[in-house]
Write a structure and sequence with these properties.
By secondary structure, the chain is mainly beta. It contains 3 helices and 30 strands.
Length: about 375
């Protein structure tokens, strides 16, 4: 007779983990969880941040993370008195600080003349107790110790917005020449371009009054794509409600749309020739929001804009050249919000609305 023990011995580690979870209804702590597809498979490490550190470094949501030259990891969140957390790559929290960005949401690294700076985006949406609030957002440039260098002018102050238009930015990107691009993903859905000193240059994008294939509908993230070389740099901008990324030139001219059906993707992150993004919701995003159903995962696209892996999600399948809708497959993530790719290929995944949990590490398998 084949017992459960004999059956598990005959399975691969990944298959055994999935089987145990499906039978018992919960993960087995003694069995590894392996997620992902093809060359991008990962071992899940949910306790990357060891228990007990929250006593001195409490969090609400883990929004975005970047790695600086010396290896430290900076993460922006929205805790009322603890908005920037600094980690070692082993998950140890070195320090935490910040109380001036209640809507802490976006974090971008900028390098200038050998020195590193942070661009911190406060989206202006924040919670206090059981209440939620909206105020105008702002983008601030700081050094790595949090000292403010300058804040970008509000778009109304430079003639880009009318008084009735909301400004709730979600992310920034820095071009090779130092220009700063801001996406107003929770506000009026435009992209605002400033030079490296913070002087306003132009506005483009938007949701209304543009061709449907160009519209930005929750312009949640933005990144500069340098994979084709500096001379051919472009902007990749999230249109999260439309389950896609839209490509623009650095001057704001539309080029193409990259669809990821079923996946409400957050900001694009480039590492090597691949594009990574956290997925906040899948399937029916309206229902997921209303019921707080966890539905997050991660997507990885190659240089040809093909999804090659969806860690935590269903395997990418193409029929007649079209990607079939993706959905959450494994109970690993609640709502993926950002992916930080380490030099060795490991991933650190930040989450929104995940019961105040710290980021999850995905250890890449050889």
């Amino acid at each position: 007779m084949i017992t459960r023990r004999h059956f598990l011995v005959g399975l691969s580690t990944a298959a055994a983990s999935v089987w145990v979870q499906k039978v018992s209804g919960a993960p087995n702590p003694l069995v590894e969880t392996i997620i992902g597809h093809g060359k991008f498979r990962y071992r899940v490490q949910k306790d990357w941040v060891a228990p007990g550190q929250g006593r001195h470094h409490p969090i609400l949501n883990c929004h975005e993370m970047i790695q600086v030259r010396d290896g430290r990891l900076f993460m922006i969140g929205d805790h009322e008195s603890n908005q920037m957390l600094v980690y070692k790559t082993d998950g140890t929290i070195l320090t935490s600080w910040g109380c001036v960005w209640p809507g802490g949401h976006g974090l971008t690294l900028s390098a200038e003349n050998g020195e590193e700076f942070l661009l911190v985006t406060d989206c202006g949406l924040w919670k206090n107790g059981n209440g939620g609030f909206r105020q105008t957002g702002r983008v601030t440039k700081t050094d790595l110790n949090g000292k403010e260098i300058f804040s970008l002018s509000h778009p109304m102050a430079v003639g880009a917005y009318e008084p009735s238009m909301m400004f709730n930015p979600t992310e920034t990107a820095v071009a090779p020449n130092g220009d700063i691009y801001v996406v107003d993903g929770y506000g009026s859905q435009y992209v605002l371009q400033y030079d490296h000193n913070g002087k306003f240059i132009r506005r483009f994008g938007g949701k209304d009054g543009v061709p449907p294939e160009q519209r930005l509908n929750t312009a949640h993230g933005i990144a500069v794509d340098l994979r084709a070389g500096v001379d051919q740099a472009t902007l990749l901008i999230t249109s999260r409600q439309d389950h896609c990324f839209r490509r623009f030139t650095l001057q704001g001219e539309y080029r193409e749309t990259i669809t990821v059906p079923g996946a409400m993707v957050c900001r694009p992150v480039f590492a090597g020739q691949e594009l990574y993004a956290g997925v906040c919701w899948s399937n029916n995003p309206v229902l997921s929001k209303l019921t707080n159903n966890p539905s997050g995962f991660v997507v990885i696209l190659d240089s040809k804009n093909q999804v090659v892996s969806a860690p935590g999600g269903t395997a990418p399948t193409y029929l007649d050249g079209k990607l079939q809708p993706l959905t959450r497959a494994e109970p690993v993530f609640d709502h993926g919000h950002d992916v930080c790719v380490l030099p060795n290929g490991d991933l650190i995944v930040c989450q929104w609305n995940a019961f105040q949990s710290y980021p999850i590490k995905l250890e890449k398998l050889a």
